[in-house]
Amino acid sequence: MVNDNKEQSSSSVPRPSPVTVTPKIDFIDLTSIEVKEVEFLVQDFLPSGLISLLYADGGSGKSYLALYLAALIASGKPFLNKTTKQGRVLYLDFEVGPDLQALRLNNIANGLGIDKDILSNNLSYLRPGTQKDVAAKLDKLIPVIKEEAFDLYIIDSLGMALTADPESAKDICSFFQELVQLGTVLLIDHQPKPQKGDKARDKTPFGSAYKFNLSRNIWHLNSKKDDEGLNCLLRHTKSNFSALQDNLGLKLRFDKDKFTVEECQPGAEFSDFLNTKELILNAYAELGEATAQAIAEEIGEDIKKIKPRISELKRQGKLKETGKKEGQRDILTLTTNETSKEVRSMGGSKNKNCNTGQAKETIIKEFDAKELPF
Question: How, if at all, do strands 259-264 and 248-254 pair?
């Protein structure tokens, strides 16, 4: 009986409530942060500390171009006329494999004249899922590779690295939350197959719109094959920190043991990817001086649609009047700044059309376009 009372007495003693500790949050004072311009690994092309995305159809040369950019950054060589900050690069390959990538890198190094010891020191490669002790899933890899503090992480491709649903907003948002830990990232991605009524220039990355929304810098690669390689148009479709950059025309040329890239002026083969103002500027680059009517005829547009665009280009300082007339019609031309954009940065000569001519520094053998190595 006594024991029962003791048990009853002890059970009636109130127990102290658990103490809840609320963690202190260190809020950031934005006004105390030193204001500075966005820095670039590749001038006006690839910003530091942000997620960039390069997307295109399959077979467009995007993986080859991505490895080419990796070699440029690893060696500090410029991309066309754009300066490059030398740094360490990790190429995460979820698609191709080391044998083919080694061949590509050899051809790139030969084309650029790069010392392969520099590449060996600054360019690292992983093939997740096939290498021993290398996780197949990117979310498992990120905690490991971020400790290496590479200056650039290239992920090829986003679709293969993503082990969730590419059309799910929730999955894409979670994926990008993981990516921001890495700092400077270049994602390589595919675009969906064209549907009836689609405009080529309006294509976006395959899947959820959040791929586009959460990337801070986006380039759209469009390519056309010829008997020497690929003629390409790079369009800057998004930037969260600056105005959009001008289109870049590229020639990707493939030799047996050499890969080269040169700048060129995109021609009529890319008209589907250009907006009206871009078509007008291209027409003036070809014709030199012309009236609005002549430009309308050149690009096959109604003069009523052309005139407002020409007026806008004049206000933007891209076109100017020559002081000449054709009847009552003013004759216009490109301004000095716009004309200079047509000049090749290497050698100072006028840009060749993407589908004609051959660069002096490029050594090319003829082969069937169907056998291009990408």
Answer: antiparallel
| pLDDT value, residue 1 | 54
| Structure tokens belonging to residue 228 | 């020497």
Closest CA to 58 of 214, 230, 212, 202: 230
d(CA 183, CA 146): 9
Which CATH code is given to the segment(s) 40-265?
A: 3.40.50.300
Q: What share of the chain is helix, strand, coil (3-state, %, to 5)?
A: 35, 25, 40
More confident residue, 97 or 278: 97
Region 93-101 average pLDDT: 95
What tens digit of pLDDT does each residue of 285-329 get? 888 999 999 999 988 889 998 999 999 999 989 999 999 999 999
- Assess whether pLDDT exceeds 60 at residue 370: no
Class for the domain spanning 272-340: mainly alpha
Whether 53 contacts 318, CB under 8 Å = no
First vs last Cα of the chain: how many Å apart?
89
Q: Which residues contact 165 (CB under 8 A, 6 or more apart)?
A: 171, 207
Residue extents of the structural domains in the chain:
40-265, 272-340
The answer to whether residue 77 scores a pLDDT higher than 90 is yes
Helix ranges restricted to H, 206-362:
210-214, 276-287, 292-299, 303-315, 336-340
pTM of the full predicted structure?
0.78
Q: Average model confidence (pLDDT) for the chain?
A: 86
Element spanning 153, H or E: strand 152-156
| Strand boundaries in 4-62, DSSP class E | 40-42, 46-47, 51-56
Report the candidate in 144, 141, 175, 156 with the shortest Cα–Cα distance to residue 69.
156
Q: Which amino acid is at 93?
A: D
Q: What's the CA gap between 126 and 134, in Å, rounded?
A: 8
Label residue 75 by pLDDT band (50, 70, 90). very high
Question: How many other C-beta atoms lie within 10 A of the C-beta of residue 299?
Answer: 17
289/296 Cα distance (integer angstroms): 13
Kindly give the interhelix angle for 276-287 and 303-315, rounded to the nearest 10 degrees: 80
Does the CA dihedral 32-36-38-39 come out positive or negative? negative
In this structure, what token pair is assigned to residue 323?
A: 């002081």
